[in-house]
Design brief:
- The protein is α/β, with parallel strands linked by helices and 314 residues long.
- The chain has ten helices and ten strands.
- Helix 8 packs across helix 9.
- It starts with a strand and ends in a 12-residue tail after the last helix.
Length: 314
């Protein structure tokens, strides 16, 4: 049997592989170019067990392992990091740590749902007005929300997909003949996002729109009304990791207590870096996003829109 600790990144992965028969350990780095990854794993004798940390961009790799008939375990990043006394992140050492935890049967696996009945995708990725004006989808931020939803829709082909997002501007756009103050479906972010999902291969008949919401609280209230989940169903809530605490707090307050958070679009690593960089503008943007979310958490809790100051998983 081959047991593999894999430190997965967007453009490459570092692998530490143990052959349990010979005791030999092989270490290497694979770039995600062409068919490098597929060819490497296809050549391995079965059985194979692979461990990775949970990330927002892991789904393609999980799907590949499933296609190749390989066991892929997804681990909790914080618990994996807690097992390493040295806090400085290093790709090869991370792969070694994952392999060690797998071999010692201490790998902190995250339980992934085997059945998903529906997916709630929150807006925030597309500018509907700009999309309509230019005749093409205008992605402005948080594209991971859309791409991961497309991947989930392929993984769970029976799941309904509900897109929640209207026009968040102070003075909403409207079309001739529209009700004053209302957002026409053709102008809603939900409609623009639907068009992009269809281009990414999601059948249009699986997609349902909620195009009235203008903030996170309305996302929760209107999505619940649109989805009408049945008892025992499993629904995933897809939004950016930074936005997830406020979003899940709103959904619980709205009455959807058992919705499953599925954070994507991560902006930080699992460790705090100590090196100095030159991307000051990017760092300031990150500070701006974080400040907005912290203020949002406080304001929403004070207004009774969330069920806790900092809603936690559970």
């Amino acid at each position: 049997m081959r047991i593999i600790g894999c430190d997965l990144h967007a453009r490459q992965q570092t692998v530490a592989m143990l052959d349990t028969i010979t005791g030999e350990v092989m270490k290497m780095t694979l770039t995600h170019e062409g068919n490098n990854v597929r060819e490497f794993y296809c050549k391995l004798p079965r059985p194979v067990r692979v461990g990775i940390e949970a990330t927002g961009s892991m789904q393609w790799f999980v799907n590949l392992m499933e296609e190749l008939g390989m066991e892929c375990l997804v681990g909790h990043p914080a618990e994996i990091r807690a097992a390493e006394p040295r806090k400085q992140k290093h790709d090869r050492r991370d792969a070694d740590l994952i392999l060690k935890l797998l071999v010692e049967n201490r790998f902190p696996t995250i339980a992934a749902p085997t059945r998903v009945d529906g997916i709630i995708l929150l807006g925030g990725s597309i500018d509907p007005g700009l999309s309509q004006a230019r005749g093409q989808i205008a992605l402005i931020a948080a594209a991971g929300r859309v791409t991961e939803t497309a991947a989930l829709a392929r993984r769970f082909p029976a799941a309904r997909v509900v897109i929640s997002g209207g026009d968040p501007s102070i003075v909403p756009a409207s079309l001739p003949g529209a009700i004053p103050g209302a957002v026409p479906e053709a102008m809603s972010e939900a409609a623009a996002t639907r068009d992009l999902l269809v281009e990414l291969g999601v059948p249009v008949e699986r997609i349902e729109l909620e195009g009235r919401s203008r903030n996170t609280e309305e996302n929760a209230v209107f999505s619940l009304a649109a989805a009408q989940p049945k008892p025992g169903e499993t629904w995933l809530l897809v939004t950016s990791a930074m936005h997830m605490p406020r979003a899940v707090g709103c959904f619980r307050r709205a009455g959807w207590a058992d919705i499953t958070p599925y954070p994507v679009d991560y902006r930080t690593s699992t460790t705090i870096g100590t090196g100095l960089g030159l991307l000051l503008a990017d760092d300031l943007v990150l500070v701006n996003f974080a400040t907005k979310e912290w203020l949002g958490l406080v304001a929403y809790y004070a207004l009774g829109r969330t069920d806790a100051l900092f809603p936690a998983p559970g």
